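User
Please review the sequence:
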Amino acid sequence: MELRKQLRAAFFFLFIVLALSVAGYRLLGGPSVTFLDALYMAIVTLSSVGYSEIVDTTHHPALRVFNIFVIIFGVMIMLYVFSVVTAFLVEGEITNIFWRRKMLKRISELKDHYIVCGLGDTGRHAIAELERTQAPYVVVETNEENIKRLVKHEDGLHREMLYVVGDATDAELLESVGIDRARGLISTLANDKENLVITVLARQKNPNVRIVARCIDQNFAERLIKAGADSTVSPNQIGGMRIASEVLRPHVVSFLDLMLKDVSRTLRIEEIDIPEDSAWAGKRLNEINLRGNYNLLPLALKDAYHDGRQHGFWVNPPENVLCHPGLVVIVLGDMKNIHEAREHAAKLARSVAAQ
């Protein structure tokens, strides 16, 4: 950014000197000096090429003095311009410009992705989980150094991280990262009020996006929910629950830690939605055979009866449960198998029958 400011300033000063030179040659050179002659004379003088004088200064002392000043200031400006342009090229700024345009194009093509606002301690862990589960995402961060530091030191980033440098509370910036096409938004800024602003803007732009916001002050959580957040997370509360769990159920915590930190496979508890016209709709769990076909363990169902009322979770459901559109199946297994099961669940029943 600093180099670009210097480059803009250098060309601005060059334009000023060039404009003053042209104006001076025309005023002091008389009516015989055309604009093209004055412009040519100015460029020849500033570039120190040394061609013959188009505007004759032999019999015009004032014009000759003016030309001396043009040469002095012109040389200084040209040296400054050349130094800035050289630095711009050496430090790869031009490459960065094309790279950023390519990144913005890739962001514009995202759909059903996740937007992470803020790259602090909480945001980094959220990105690590999105990366491990191969979920598409884009980061919005005000400080580009935080992004570069993460990319440099984080070994878990197997894909090129898409990001935009800017203020996530800016409505236009949220539009540029595809808030209207996003599946979810994670707001992890340190300031609860900024998370509130992001929540309001995101909900206005996309009524269907799922919003999860970080909340330091528990009294602020209710405001975030009213503003449109689907859920709030308090790091202090989560930390306290983790400490208590380490005391009460150490083996369960060890199993969950192993599940999250195992590098050889990505075991997760995930959910599989059954959409309209799904190939799974109308089938029973034993017909889908999650264990045999996908090596997944069904743990629970959500909205198992689908009669328009709000239901809780059906834990350890029987194998003869009939699946229907709108049902959510919660499973335990490797993410590779979960992605495969999701693809099959999303297939249309008529397309499967045709096969």
